[in-house]
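Because discrete structure vocabularies remain unfamiliar, we first show an illustrative case, written as a sequence plus integers encoding its fold.
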Amino acid sequence: MEAKASSSSERLPGTATQHPRSTYLTVGHVTRDLHSSGWEFGGTAYYSSLVAQRLGMLVTAVTRAAAADADALAAACPEIRWVARAAPATTSMRNTYGLQGRTQHAPEVAAPIAAADLDGLPDEFAVVHLAPVVGEIGPDLLGHLPHADLTGLTAQGLLRRVDPDGAVQGRGWPDAKDILDAIDVLVLSSEDIASDPAGATAHLQRARIGVLTRGPLPVQVFADGDCSEIPVRRVADASPTGAGDVFAAALFVNLQRTGRLGDAVQTAAAIATRWVERRWDAFPSDPEPPTPGPR
């Protein structure tokens, strides 16, 4: 399919900037990403918060973490307002990449984020980004979210479960209807939907706006009953971890600012591509990349 010309210029109601200050809220577990030499912070809530901040947003992030990790997070990334609720352990993830794609293990999983964890937040944000990694957000949270110009969801964490041995597996999404009815934009990747592509396509079609990233293949955009495609520049997967989170944050920021869906998708894809190639150097306005935590 080809992208419709109107998709890059149509202004969508309710997504243009309404607040004098650009504010961005993420809700989800920041993770310890484990690797051979130690660990660093990761997870959608982490990457998207830092990306939104680098795109000029004032960011608040609600997460759960062990006390020492919460302190390290605040020290490493002081430009973000981290609302880190106490947990015995921080969610940890180990990503392994091979010929068959990525496999994941989660040796530790923090408790879900509860409605009470949102207490004390401002009443409204320009963007609210629901950013689960392992099912820590549920429908009970929806009625307690602040008002937003745009509420976006990266749903990968609602489409997987953690087995007793820590293996991360795909799962169904039984409460999808309640969550999709409460958001404006759903973002998924082809990796997220591998276990149930037909079901995931139905979710994308049901959402007000559904966006499916597919690596080097064109991004699929579902809106108003149609599906269009927006090409992306092909690059070697030099550093794919976090690319989907970077894309989502850039999409939500640009869509909230302009209301132009096609333009926002193209901008987000370009930023995510630069991320794969250059990591934090994808944001040339930053003098230095962040210090992501102990290694």
Remarks:
- Confidence is low (pLDDT under 50) at residues 1-18, 286-295.
